[in-house]
Amino acid sequence: MSKVKLIFGTSNTVPSGETESLFEDAYQKAFKPFLTTIYNHPEIRPTLFYAGPLLEWLEKKHPEFHTVLGEMMSRKNLEMLGGGFWDPMLPLVPAPDRVGQIEVMTTYLRKKFGKRSRGSWITSQVWEAHLASSLKASGMDYVFLSERAFPSVPSFRPESPVIAEDQGKTVVIFPVMDSLTERFLKVPPEHILESLRTLEPSEDKEVVVSLIIDGRILGGDGNYSVCYEEKWLERFFEAVHRSRDWLECVHPGRYIRNSHFSREKMYVPGPTYASLMRWSRPDNPGSADKSSSRPSSFYREFLTKYRESGLLYAKMMHIEVLTNQLRGDKYRKKNAKEELWRGQEHYAYWHGPTGGIYSSRLRHAAYSALIEAEKATRERGIFKSALSSVDFDMDGQKEFLYNGLNFNAYVHSVGGALFELDYLPVSRNYLATLSRYPEDYHPPATREQGYDKYPRHAFLDHILHPDDGPESFERSSYRSRSPFPGKRYEALEVVRDQPRVTLSCRGPVNGGGEVLEIRKTYRFRRNNLEVDYLLTNLTPRTLSFPWGTEINLALSDDADKRSISINTEESNDNGSDRRGRDRDVESWTLLDAERDVMMFFTLSEPAELWSFPVFADYRVGRELRRKYQSSFFMPCWNVELPPLGTHSYKISMRIGRLKNR
Fold first, then answer.
1. Where are the domains of the chain?
2. Cut 0.90: pTM above it
3. What is the pLDDT of residues 413-444, one digit of tens each?
4. Angle of CA points 149, 119, 179, to nearest 5°
5. At the top level of CATH, which class does the domain 444-657 belong to?
6. How many CA atoms lie within 13 A of 377 on its CB side?
């Protein structure tokens, strides 16, 4: 009688941008005890996936872990899965990058462990049908995919592998039976085996159950006691061994080679299962009722739900073009490509169960890699600063990109705002901010703090209500109905030889028939950015109103490493987050002590400066966290314009490294 075939294993990842302590904690509580336990049960024959950044960390910090993996592979007790080395969401990256990343992983496994991989793990279980051809082109014969990714058709059985096809290329998909893996550590191990026993193979029906578990769950997330001190995992392995008369542990590669069953071909669509789609659903900021949110029809909608996700994706695609244009210098192209692939790590592009894009550490790690890739495309001594107009974010309108020797500054027509500020010496985008978004898990206290109505960029223009203040802006309860942050500015002039761009927008004042024109000119210098404002009253009567321009900047995550000093170029380095109003401000200095970077702002006229730090609440697993995202600054003036009159303001910013520190 045929036996039930069991493919058991884990997928193991830690975001590369995370802290050393988090890597070490995951190693001590999850990765090390798991390998120790399964090493003593050679009959289990595990199938394991480790993401590239984790493999590199293990090789550097715990080489003995690699030694054990290599020994298990040499005695044919272990099969290692491949995949994208830097853990990208495969459908989101161009096909050549998919192939390139998988080939890097394949080469790494072959060099370190003596055998190449033939199977691939699918990051975050995000599948699209066209992946089959890319995977096959990379030498992959099979993949693992959650049972929930499959369409609800009578012929689908989660215990039966299927064939996926694209452009004549095929791979085998092993469905992962998540309905069982989710019961791990929650029920006695024997209950898992009882469920497996109900699956009966026959001469014409194979039963292959794939149980691939998130490796950090087995020991992490507070599960260490159950998993190892109470020996749940040990008891599970013993129960599997006792069931050897009807259950057989197999490796997927060997099983495919030896199996003679015919398999059904199935075209698996893009994922629509709830555990993924919840992160793409656009929530209604005015309601705590989940039913009021429009259901997402496609998982990629997270690129529009989180505007910052769309901009990071646009940056990645922009760098993709730059790296593809490299010719001649193979070493430089290889370096640029590897940094690009490092920047494709999926966490920062969406929310996901790890918090993803809400983690400023992960956002900045992705941007840092992409900026490093961009720097690698520049030939030293040949590259010159340039101002270009391209549809950077793929919205059908052109943005204005200044690429300088020391910094990049990107200007968007919506709001006429600065949306990216890369300081190249430290590969830091100081506008990798994040707006506060409504999430269906937010408690009432979070919702009462308010959500942002527009992206937290820089040089966003506001006609203010007299009752507004920094407190109302911090809680998004301000009375101002200024349209300018969401309006499209018209480009009046783009000068490339003396790089500057002038934008203009008209809008109402105080909700009446009065019309104000805001014209602003961005001027780019080696270490300086200047923004010249010209306000024009287009009505035949005097206009009086408070006006300000909002600047958000993502400084150090560490509150002790970020500070602000008023009316002095010297940083006080007091490590405090400033809140409230400062009057008669002519200049202010921002310090990012973590990178020894200082930004010095000067104003053409004294202003009242509003400021506060921006925090966002998000969930990681079952834990609700509040983390710093950016710092808000807004110089404000009381403006009085005679009929058809004008008034000008200038804001200058100088950025540079601190000396003698």
1. 4-277, 287-383, 444-657
2. yes
3. 999 999 999 999 999 999 999 999 999 999 99
4. 35
5. mainly beta
6. 19
